[in-house]
Amino acid sequence: MYRKGMPSALPFTIRLKGPDQISGGRVQSVEERYDGVARLSTTDLQLECSGRREHTDIKGGSVVSRTEQLPVTRLAVPARRIIEATLRQRWWRPYLRLRVSDVDMLAGFPGAGGTECRLRIAREDPARAVEFITDLRL
């Protein structure tokens, strides 16, 4: 899978917006943001990220925000279980789309749903992401 001399790591972000609650002139929202790195090893794809959750409460003319740190999440996905890795180009938000063969493989990883996970890539990193995907397919 991984060849020496090729990019072995790809930084990514994941953003999850919780449902906003609006009632009686009060708005409460929750947003999670994860910063992580995807790494290639000889046998698997390793995903690691740390995150924070921001709670915002708006009532009348006041805004109260608090941030809580979330635990580090680590996941090793065996290369033989990855059925698709593609870069999706969006104007503002390119992302790496991973699909795996086992529905439980991504369980517990932020933003994963079923057999799919989307890792947002910085706009300046699409070439790096393409090289990463090429190495992943080897």
Written account of the structure:
The radius of gyration is 17 Å and the shape is elongated. It is mainly β and 138 residues long. The relative contact order is 0.23. The strands form 2 sheets. Strands 1, 2, 3, 4 and 5 form a 5-stranded antiparallel sheet that branches. Strands 6-7-8 form a 3-stranded antiparallel sheet, with helices on one face. The model has no long low-confidence stretch (mean pLDDT 89). Helix content is 9%, strand content 57%. The longest helix has 12 residues.
Percent of sequence in beta strands:
over 45%
Number of helices: 1
**Structural shape:** elongated
* Residue windows where pLDDT falls under 50 for at least 5 positions: none
Biggest beta sheet summary: 5 strands, antiparallel
C-alpha-based Rg, rounded: 17 Å
Distance between the termini: 5 Å
Structural class: mainly beta
Order of helices and strands: EEEEEEEEH
- Share in helix: under 10%
Query: How many beta-strand segments?
Result: 8
Mean pLDDT, as a whole number?
Answer: 89
How are the elements arranged and paired?
Elements: E1 9-17, E2 21-23, E3 26-40, E4 44-59, E5 62-78, E6 82-88, E7 95-100, E8 116-120, H1 126-137
Antiparallel strand pairs: 1-3, 2-3, 3-4, 4-5, 6-7, 7-8
Short structural summary:
The chain has 138 residues and is mainly beta.
Keywords:
5-stranded antiparallel beta sheet, 1 helix, 57% strand, 138 residues, 3-stranded antiparallel beta sheet, mainly beta
